[in-house]
Write a structure and sequence with these properties.
The structure is a single chain. With about 240 residues, this protein is mainly α. The protein has one domain. About 75% of the residues lie in helices and about 5% in strands. It has nine helices and two strands. It has a two-stranded antiparallel ribbon. Strand 1 and strand 2 form a beta hairpin. Helix 1 packs across helix 3, helix 2 runs parallel beside helix 5 and helix 6 runs antiparallel to helix 7.
């Protein structure tokens, strides 16, 4: 088995995870709105969700693939190291925001508004990330053991659906209601709008979890055939 090829699969999934995570962090503040041809409970005929929803959903896809290929321990290392990297991202962004701007620069106020995530967004995203991502890995691993390594579709959908629900409720509640009301930072949204955001974001994430299952199968099969990766649960490297 070529260690170089194995590392290629690992690096690819790690890169996807980190890229999606960073993208989610810098796009979380924008609230999107999509008109629907039908009405959903709570959300109504307009699907509202944070701009980070799609990017963040990809992190669960990447972590499920990674857990399937390399086991629970490796996936948790990835998740928890990436959590620390969130602070590196914040430090780099804010050091750039606070540095003096040249006369030819983009307007510093605009730059800060776009990239300078407010305290409520940061607090909501970090807490939601730490809880939901670790939950995803644990549930995926337990279902993997309970099914004897069969039914990848079941653990992918179940782990992602439950962790996305946890993530959505924590992030939206903290970022748009609890932290603004408790600390007076950021804009607090009415409970009805918060509920609408929760429903809108979760509907999208649940659809992604259902749609990406065949892709998870394809990625896992491709990685194993190309890189010679063995099942982490068989080799004992979990």
């Amino acid at each position: 088995m070529s260690s170089e090829r194995v590392s290629t699969a690992q690096v690819g999934l790690l890169a996807l995870f980190v890229t999606a995570l960073v993208t989610a962090q810098v796009t979380a503040a924008k609230v999107l709105a999509f008109s629907l041809p039908f009405s959903l409970p709570v959300a109504g005929a307009t699907l509202t969700l944070p701009g980070a929803a799609l990017a963040y959903a990809l992190t669960f896809f990447a972590s499920d693939c990674y857990a399937e290929l390399y086991g629970r321990r490796a996936a948790q290392v990835m998740v928890n190291v990436a959590f620390v990297m969130n602070f590196v991202l914040l430090a780099l962004v804010w050091s750039t925001i606070l540095a003096p701007a040249a006369g030819t620069s983009i307007d510093p106020t605009t730059f800060r508004q776009v990239l300078g995530s407010s305290t409520n967004i940061v607090a909501g995203s970090l807490v939601a990330y730490l809880v939901s991502q670790n939950w995803d890995v644990v549930v995926f691993d337990r279902l993997r053991r309970a099914t004897g390594g069969d039914h990848l579709w079941l653990r992918n959908i179940a782990s992602t659906a439950s962790s996305q629900a946890i993530d959505t409720v924590i992030f939206v509640s903290l970022a748009f209601y609890v932290v603004p009301n408790a600390l007076g930072v950021g804009a607090a949204l009415p409970p009805s709008v918060v509920a609408s955001l929760v429903v809108g974001q979760y509907v999208l994430k649940l659809l992604i979890a259902l749609v990406d299952t065949p892709v998870v199968y394809a990625v896992v099969a491709f990685a194993r055939s190309r890189d010679g990766s063995q099942d982490a649960y068989v080799t004992g490297t979990r």
